[in-house]
Recover the amino acids of this structure.
């Protein structure tokens, strides 16, 4: 039995969970989320607790058991607290600015890059080199952070580019020169 899947999920006050067919609706103070789940599991809500039970013992059923419980837990956490990813920009002349619901980035290209925020995601720019991505859907926040990082990933020689907060970039040595060659 899945160690994560068998744990009941206690709902905090102000969170409403409804299950219809193979879809879970979670509504809380920060927003509302919907997620379809596999038919290999059964989700039930009773007495302020959500329980996930699998319908069989095949490998697919066991895998879906813990996954579904974790996804519902992330939805509950998202509508109560929300999720945040932070990015850092490093490099001379690299900067970010926010205007309305889009992010304007100067990343060393011959043109500025504009990234439009999808629905449910908010940007906050701290200074000119720190970007915070906030939202209720953990998957969407992570995807947006990965897309922004992908615009200019950190390069291994000088470390310039966009990186996650606290990400360590292993630097490579440059050319050794002609000192040892004869």
């Amino acid at each position: 039995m899945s160690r994560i899947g068998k744990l009941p999920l206690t709902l905090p006050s102000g969170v409403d969970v409804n299950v219809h067919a193979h879809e879970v609706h979670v509504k809380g103070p920060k927003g509302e989320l919907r997620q379809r789940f596999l038919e290999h599991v059964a989700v039930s809500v009773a007495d302020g607790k959500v329980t996930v039970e699998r319908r069989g013992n095949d490998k697919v059923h066991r895998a879906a058991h813990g996954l579904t419980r974790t996804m519902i837990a992330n939805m509950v956490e998202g509508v109560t607290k929300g999720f945040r990813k932070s990015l850092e920009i490093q490099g001379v002349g690299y900067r970010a600015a926010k205007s309305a619901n889009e992010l304007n980035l100067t990343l060393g290209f011959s043109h500025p890059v504009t990234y439009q925020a999808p629905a449910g995601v908010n940007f906050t720019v701290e200074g000119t080199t720190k970007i915070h991505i906030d939202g209720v859907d953990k998957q969407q926040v992570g995807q947006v952070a990965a897309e922004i990082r992908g615009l200019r990933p950190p390069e291994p020689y000088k470390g310039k580019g966009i990186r996650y907060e606290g990400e360590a970039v292993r630097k490579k040595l440059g050319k050794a020169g002609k000192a040892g060659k004869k």
